[in-house]
From TrEMBL:
SMART domains listed in its UniProt record: Ftsk_gamma
Topology in the lipid bilayer: Multi-pass membrane protein
Predominant location category: membrane
Coiled-coil annotated spans: none
Subcellular location: Cell membrane
UniProt source species: Aureitalea marina
GO MF annotation terms: ATP binding; DNA binding
Pfam families xrefs: FtsK_4TM, FtsK_alpha, FtsK_gamma, FtsK_SpoIIIE
GO biological process: cell division; chromosome segregation
Protein name as annotated: Cell division protein FtsK
Transmembrane segments: 29-51, 85-108, 120-140, 160-180
Length: 800
């Protein structure tokens, strides 16, 4: 049933889309107005023809005589179309045709749903036929009411069905029309009769009483309302006599009202008031239902309905991907070494089992009874030595399995291609808000998680260990699964090179601040503005949710799709927003609290309204990943890091320092730690995917975030000399000597805070000592030597 409904909705959408695609907006307006007036002209002609047809009969068909005037209000046009449609056509029912054409004009003009228009046409034409045949039934020759067609059709019917058969058929058709179109059912008819009966009784009640009784009636109404009802409920209607006294009559009427109401206990005498309330409720309920019936559910993807998701063949199939090649000798050798090493330390093994993954093999051992687990754990380095392999990790015990795991890297690690994870049924069938195909587990299962549930992700790893590839894998997963209307990315890339490829999909998937050229943010100041703007978006979304009485974005969007929220009240379909920050350490170093505060706010509050953060950093030190950030990022991915301390910072435990790099990673979402091999997606593949998407029809602009007007700390080029910092000259000298225009250098050398150093840099830029901001790189120093600097500053004074 539900399926059928969605199918019809889809079909409906298709037809209406086809219609509006065929005509441009202007064409629709012009054609709409033409049809409107043409339909009106027809109707005027037909009405006038009905009055003047006899007088104009001789003028029919004479078009070449310009002098000739007919009595029709639309002159020769009216006479001729009247003759054609009314006389020769459908008679009086031709007016319906004029009405339908006028209506089509109105629909086209206002670009309303074409679906209901088709319905009007279908039923209108049937009605026209029926009416003309109906009139044909009463006319003895061709008449003005039935038209020739109506008369002839009626004649034809009677030839085959006879008079009675024709009456039966016509009545049957009328019933079909009433039932389907007007939804008239026997219950409705009975209800209507009942209501009419009640109405008569009510009218009877409201008839002004004779003069001598007025006094009496006022007395009755001034009595408490409840009283007659209490009496009524005990009164038997049969006891009412023919000659009723006024009081008895009142009793009877009230009793009837109580009976006609389904509610057994009625507190008030005014029943019509209750009926009105019920009606009002129906209207509210119907409004959204009717909208859904007419237009179907709101479809956010409609604007880019032809959008095609990237195809699988854009991704490469890396060699050796066909299946895992298990090297039996290697397995045996490793097993023997593990057993020997352990037996050297007098640890007996009851059982050993190997699971071969893409990069590492997990040997699960069950030690003999009485062996302490910590003893095996302490042998990590010895086992690594005996296996002469890096990256041995001992998991003792494996949670939920009761065994001890030893992960040993394979000699020939296999690349997990993005293609294989995207093509996996697990990802394809994932019904998640933001599915991420991260890679494969040690047992070769595709690992898919929902970013919306994380709800924010922290990634860390030393340089060259696969962070950028990981970010690309995450973004690629979303591109393969989510329509541009459903998700938007805000990309921050201080390195300027990692995410540039995504520029191609700016108008499909990216979000940016108004009045900015590039959607991918590389400038620290812009990052601060964007983060604050996202906080504003978050607040605005919370207001919308509150207004709609929804707890999260999912409920809200469902309500919006069901057309229960009015766009005129500011409601809109809310896409998920994924904020990706590469090189977070760099940001924190340059902007500190200014970045940390909005990020912490977003991380704490944004989960319910569909804003999710992915933060990647090379340096997972505590001053970068502060306590407040860590607390709000329960999901973490660690690629290989260089020290145990770094591993602790990111994972709250060791392990990341024992990984083997090249996409080998640990994923945790609070408790369990899962070792994964990150899916590999190369730059050319990302380029192909973004090219594929970018070449399709896009939105007019990137998704715009709210405008944020921050305190302009950027390049304020007209800073007057008096306003310069006391340390201005000293700062200039430091930069000229070092030939490096960086704020952090000033911070260190002059022992300043970030803000003051930033202000100094701005002043130095205004004075022409350093060049403009260049992202993560230090600014260029424009003055080569100290002498040149002195000259420059002295010249300034001379000018003053
Ligand atoms: N999942 C993977 N599978 C196979 N090889 C990988 C994988 N991830 C990364 N590599 C290899 O490691 C190299 C470096 O990866 P990547 O550029 O992602 O490092 P990174 O951590 O981003 O470094 P940086 O922080 O300096 O940008 C890649 O060029 C690739 O050869």
């Amino acid at each position: 049933m539900a399926k059928r409904k969605t199918r019809t909705t889809k079909k409906r959408k298709k037809t209406s889309r086809k219609f509006s695609l065929a005509l441009s907006k202007q064409q629709q307006v012009i054609l709409g107005s033409f049809l409107f007036f043409f339909g009106l002209a027809l109707m005027v002609s037909f009405v006038s023809y009905l009055f003047n047809w006899q007088a104009d009969q001789s003028e029919v068909g004479i078009l070449e005589d310009r002098e000739l005037q007919t009595d029709n209000w639309l002159n020769k046009f009216g006479t001729n179309v009247g003759h054609l449609f009314v006389y020769r056509g459908f008679g009086l029912a031709s007016l319906i045709l004029g009405g339908l054409i006028t209506l089509s004009g109105i629909y086209l003009f206002f670009n309303s749903s074409k679906q209901s228009l088709w319905k009007y046409w279908f039923w209108g034409l049937l009605m026209m036929l029926w009416i003309s045949i109906f009139f044909g039934f009463f006319s003895s020759g061709s008449s003005l009411f039935s038209g020739v067609i109506g008369y002839e059709l009626n004649d034809l019917l009677q030839d085959y069905l006879g008079l009675i058969g024709t009456i039966f058929l016509m009545t049957f058709l009328m019933i079909v029309y009433l039932v389907i179109r007007l939804k008239v059912t026997p219950d409705l008819v009975i209800g209507l009769f009942k209501r009419t009966k009640d109405q008569i009784v009510e009218d009877f009640e409201s008839v002004p009483p004779p003069m001598e009784e007025v006094q009496h009636t006022t007395e009755t109404t001034s009595e408490p309302i409840e009283e007659p009802i209490v009496q009524d409920l005990n009164t038997q209607p049969e006891t009412v006599a023919d000659e009723e006294s006024e009081e008895e009559l009142l009793e009877k009427i009230t009793l009837k009202k109580v009976e006609s109401n389904p509610e057994p206990i009625v507190e008030e005498a005014e029943i019509s008031l209750e009926v009105e309330q019920a009606k009002e409720e129906e209207v509210v309920k119907d409004a959204s239902q009717k909208l859904v019936e007419d237009f179907g559910e709101f479809d956010p993807t409609l604007e880019l309905s032809k959008f095609r998701f990237p195809t699988l063949d854009l991704l490469k199939n890396y060699e050796g991907n066909a299946g895992i090649t298990i090297n039996q000798d290697e397995l045996e050798e490793n097993k023997n070494r593990i057993v020997n090493t352990l037996s050297n330390y007098k640890i007996g093994i009851a059982n050993i089992k190997a699971t071969v993954g893409p990069t590492v093999t997990l040997y699960e051992i069950v030690p003999e009874a009485g062996i302490r687990i910590s003893k095996i754990k302490n042998l990590e380095d010895d086992i690594a030595l005996s296996l002469s392999a890096l990256g041995i990790r001992i998991i003792a015990p494996i949670p939920g399995r009761g065994t001890i795991g030893i992960e040993v890297p394979n000699k020939n690690p296999r690349i997990v291609s993005m293609r294989s994870v995207i093509a996996s049924p697990k990802f394809q069938k994932a019904e998640m808000a933001l599915p991420l195909a991260l890679g494969k587990t040690i047992s070769n299962e595709t690992f898919v998680v929902d970013l919306a549930k994380m709800p924010h992700l922290l990634m860390a790893g030393a340089t060259g260990q696969g962070k950028s590839v990981g970010l690309n894998a995450i973004l690629t997963s979303l591109l393969y699964k989510k329509h541009p209307a459903e998700v938007k990315f805000v990309l921050v890339d201080p390195k300027k090179v990692e995410l540039t490829l995504f520029n191609k999909i700016e108008r499909h998937y990216l979000a940016k601040l108004p009045d900015t050229e590039e959607a991918i943010i590389t400038d620290t100041r812009k990052v601060i503005n964007t983060l604050n703007s996202m906080c504003m978006e978050m607040d605005a979304r919370y207001d919308l949710l509150k207004d709609a009485m929804c707890r999260n974005i999912k409920e809200y969007n469902q309500k919006f799709k069901a057309r229960k929220l009015n766009p005129n009240d500011g409601h809109r379909y809310l896409p998920y927003i994924v904020l990706v920050i590469d090189e977070f350490a760099d940001l924190i170093m340059t902007a500190g609290k200014e970045v940390e505060t909005p990020i912490a706010r977003l991380a704490q509050l944004a989960r319910a309204i569909g804003i999710h953060l992915i933060i990647a950093t090379q340096r997972p030190s505590v001053n970068v990943i502060t306590g407040i950030i860590k607390a709000n990022f329960p999901a973490r991915i660690a690629f290989r890091v260089t020290s145990k301390i770094d591993s602790r910072t990111i994972l709250d435990g060791p392990g990341a320092d024992q990984l083997i790099g090249r996409g080998d990673m640990l994923y945790t979402q609070g408790n369990e730690m899962i070792r994964l091999q990150c899916a590999f997606v190369d730059t050319p593949e990302v380029s192909d995917i973004t090219e594929f998407i970018g070449s399709q029809k896009a939105y007019p602009d990137a998704h715009l975030l709210p405008e944020y007007v921050g305190e302009e700390g950027g390049t304020n080029l007209d800073i007057s000399h008096e306003d310069r910092d006391a340390l201005f000259r000293e700062a200039a000298e430091v930069l000229v000597v070092a030939q490096q225009g960086s704020a952090s250098l000033l911070q260190r050398k002059l022992k300043l805070g970030y803000n003051r150093a930033g202000r100094l840099i701005d002043q130095l830029e205004a004075a022409g000592v350093v060049g403009p901001f260049e992202g993560s790189k230090a600014r260029q120093v424009l003055v080569p030597t100290l002498e040149a600097l002195n000259q420059l500053l002295d010249n300034e004074h001379a000018e003053d």
